[in-house]
Amino acid sequence: MITDAQVERWLREDVGHHDVTNQVPGETTGRLVAKESGVAAGLEAAAAVFDYLDVAVTDRLEAGAEIEPGDELLRVVGSAREVLRGERVAVNLAGHASGIATRTGEAVERARTEADDVAIAATRKTTPGLRGLEKRAVVAGGGDTHRLDLSHMVMIKDNHIEELGLEEAIDHFRERTSFATKLDVEVETVADAPRAAAAGADIVLLDNMTPTETRAAVDELADYEGVLAEASGGIGLADVPAYAATGVDVISMGSLTHSAPSLDLSFKTGE
């Protein structure tokens, strides 16, 4: 949910202390238009910006809609001054989110060439203050949010294992979590995958392994019913089919959020 406080911060950053640029009288209409094909996202945030400025949003697409150049994503009507004040913030938010949704959709499409049920998931590599926007954009593109914050799941990483040991780290965190909290345990070798599963991991994260190593680790985990295999670590769009073919349940990709280019959108008034 986008709050008024968020919108106020976004607008304050853009408008500054003395806005002369947007001192335009009268009423006008505006529309957000795609300049390239992709997947629409972030329109709830764009609409929230205009709502805050008392500009009426008369139409908008649903998140996840496929768009082509020239398609209209959102239409508004209201004070020309306020429409122009909200324009850049709305375009930036929607363009950023739509870029993430588009990249996620591309990853899902590539995964489906090899496996029908592998999940494409984001990570916590998000922009501070924009995690909600970015995670919703991943969902709009057909992906999975993974954990939204540290409280949603315990991820036992290399630093934990370095300090405590593999089995000891799993025991340590299992004792401190609810029965409803899953443990995702990062391993870096094929041999450590079944060790983690035997010690109580719910998910074994196969970190920075090649597709060949990943497949071998998945085979090692076959005897552990209910334990999921997750591939992660530097996986780009071109790598997705090879990892999807290994039999993993999840492919998690930081690049969905931290490297997606903004989708090219423009805002037209008075039309």
Sequence-ordered SSE layout with sheet pairings:
Blueprint (H helix, E strand, L loop, with lengths): L3 H12 L11 E8 L3 E2 L3 H10 L3 E5 L5 E2 L4 E8 H33 L6 E3 L9 H10 L13 E3 L1 H7 L1 H9 L8 E5 L4 H8 L3 E5 L3 H10 L7 E5 L7 H5 L5 E3 L2 H4 L6 E5 L2
Parallel strand pairs: 6-11, 7-8, 8-9, 9-10, 10-11
Antiparallel strand pairs: 1-5, 1-12, 2-4, 3-5
TL;DR?
The protein is of the alpha/beta class. Helices cover 40% and strands 20% of the residues.
Integer count of domains: 2
Number of strands: 12
> So how many helices?
10
> What is the CATH C-level name of the largest domain?
Alpha Beta
User: How much is the average pLDDT?
Assistant: 93
Global outline: elongated
Distance between the termini: 30 Å
What is the H/E string? HEEHEEEHEHEHHEHEHEHEHE
User: From the helix content, strand content and strand pairing, which structural class follows?
Assistant: alpha/beta
Approximately how much beta-strand content do the residues carry?
Answer: 15-25%
Structure report:
By secondary structure, the chain is an alpha/beta fold. The chain has two domains: about 5-110 and about 260-270, Aldehyde Oxidoreductase, domain 3; about 115-260, TIM Barrel (Alpha-Beta Barrel), CATH 3.20.20. It has ten helices and twelve strands. It has helices at about 5-15, 45-50, 80-110, 130-140, 160-165, 165-175, 190-200, 210-220, 240-245, 255-260; strands at about 25-35, 40, 55-60, 65, 70-80, 120, 155, 185, 205, 230, 250, 265-270. Strands 6-11-10-9-8-7 form a six-stranded parallel sheet. Strands 3-5-1-12 form a four-stranded antiparallel sheet, covered by helices on one side. It has a two-stranded antiparallel ribbon with strand order 2-4. α1 crosses α3, α2 (about 45-50) packs antiparallel against α3 (about 80-110) and α6 (about 165-175) runs parallel beside α7.
